[in-house]
Amino acid sequence: MNSIKRDRLDIMIDILEIVSTLSKKTHILYKANVNYTQLTKYLTALQELGMLHERDGEYVITDKGRIFLSLMKKSAIIEH
Predict the structure, then answer these.
(1) Which end of the chain offers a freer environment for a tag, N or C, measured as fewer CB atoms within 10 Å?
(2) CA neighbor of 15 nearest in space, from 50, 48, 52, 49
(3) Rounded distance, CA 56 to CA 54, Å?
(4) pLDDT, tens digit, for every residue of 19-40?
(5) pLDDT, tens digit (0-9, with 9 covering 90-100), for 61-79
(6) What is the CATH number that goes with domain 8-74?
(7) Could you state, in order of their start, the residue ranges of all structural domains in the chain?
(8) 28 neighbors 41 (Cβ within 8 angstroms)
(9) pTM of the entire structure?
């Protein structure tokens, strides 16, 4: 089994990619492969940074989050 440890930035980027479309917390939890405590921590941090916001129990990326995600992809920090 090949286990690759992701760092905080990788997890935050994964979450931003997931919420590029309106997503519920449960959907983000499974797609990002984190536990509930971690997810809550990351969602709070990303909201405080202005990169995503919650609307009626669902999360969506903001313009600031899209710009950040685009810059990360262009700088080849993430490989997709």
Answers:
(1) N
(2) 52
(3) 7
(4) 999 999 999 999 999 999 999 9
(5) 999 999 999 998 887 555 5
(6) 1.10.10.10
(7) 8-74
(8) no
(9) 0.86
